[in-house]
Specification:
By secondary structure, the protein is an alpha/beta fold. It is built from eleven helices and twelve strands. The protein has a single domain, classed as Rossmann fold (3-Layer(aba) Sandwich). Strands 2-1-3-4-5-10 form a six-stranded parallel beta sheet, with helices on both faces. A two-stranded parallel sheet has the order 6-9. Helix 6 crosses helix 8, helix 6 packs across helix 10 and helix 8 packs across helix 10.
Length: 320
């Protein structure tokens, strides 16, 4: 698909991942006026009339919009998280089908995998059990996009593809404590401790859980490559192919940020899914994606971006 000749709607295009997807599309030669980025305050995808208006003249839809956050955020609003994600996806796919959109790219989540999936997670494992409980409402809601997309392909011939990214990180992420994921939450926690002169940080869980992290610019490139080249019903994992324990992650962040204080683990808080790492061979075989950014390099850029955004902001240590 020659994307430069298409009118492309990117839901969530003003968000963390979406802003990088828009930039990746521009690098592919898509004119700015052919990329439509709806804002949630003026386009509510839970309303069919608004979803239909959005996609009326679109050739391609990349659906990134989601209600998403870390473990704490998931536990606060599980009902809203399930409802909003299911309804947004269902409305958008139906509106796009009715409008004759050529292709829709649905973005799933690693949270859809069963809690005890063998590592590395293969796409064929998606239905082999129930997701980890703290992430289940979000994971199942996003997995419904896969079911709907495959059903619409079978009945209507609608070209829907489903990409499953692992945990993302990078500049422009959410650093608010109530909804941030683990990397931005830890960066902020360490920065706040250093600013306040505290000699320790408190971290949820035991540190034994492991995660795979994909740099956001690599994720955006994967989504655009899949949009261009992939046209099959099977889901495709998008990841970096490497695993790190939360304990090692915390030690890496504190080392890069120069924090030498105590790390206190709160084992009364949940670890979440025990392990996460994706088998990414299908993405490479089907549309040539392989992550290029090393974890150390991506983490360094993320920390530098956060520090640039908070430079000059007053803190107790600075004001004393």
């Amino acid at each position: 698909m020659d994307l430069a000749r298409k009118r492309i709607v990117v839901t969530g295009g003003a968000g963390f991942l979406g802003s990088f997807v828009v930039e990746a599309l521009r690098r592919r030669g898509v004119p700015a006026d052919q990329i439509v980025v709806p804002r949630s305050d003026v386009c509510d995808l839970r309303q069919m009339d608004q979803a239909a208006k959005l996609v009326a003249d679109a050739n391609v839809v990349i659906h990134l919009a989601a209600v998403v956050g870390g473990i704490g955020f998931n536990q606060m609003i599980p009902g809203q998280m399930f409802y909003d994600n299911v309804v947004m996806g269902a409305q958008l796919l139906e509106a796009a089908r009715r409008a004759g959109v050529e292709k829709l790219v649905a973005i799933g989540t690693v949270c859809a995998y069963p809690k005890h999936t063998p590592v590395p997670f293969k796409e064929s494992d998606l239905w082999n059990g129930y997701p980890e409980e703290t992430n289940a409402p979000y994971g199942i809601a996003k997995k419904m996009l896969l079911v709907q997309g495959q059903a619409y392909r079978q009945q209507y011939g609608f070209n829907v593809i489903h990409l499953v990214p692992v945990n993302l990180y990078g500049p422009r992420d959410h650093f608010e404590p109530d909804r941030s994921h683990v990397i931005p939450a830890l960066i902020k926690k360490v920065a706040d401790a250093m600013d306040a002169g505290r000699g320790h940080i408190d971290v949820w869980g035991t540190g034994s859980a492991s995660r795979e992290f994909l740099y956001v610019k690599d994720a955006a490139d994967a989504i655009v490559l899949g949009t261009e080249r992939y046209n099959e019903p099977e889901p495709v994992n998008i990841g970096a192919g490497r695993e790190i324990t939360i304990r090692n992650l915390v030690e890496t962040i504190t080392r890069q940020m120069g924090f030498r204080g105590e790390i206190r683990w709160d084992a009364t808080k949940p670890d979440g899914q025990p392990r996460r790492m994706l088998d990414t061979s299908r993405a490479y075989q089907t549309f040539g994606f392989k992550a290029r950014t090393s974890f150390e390099e991506g983490l360094k850029e993320t920390i530098e971006w956060y520090r640039s955004q908070t430079a000059g902001v007053s803190s107790p240590a600075r004001t004393r």
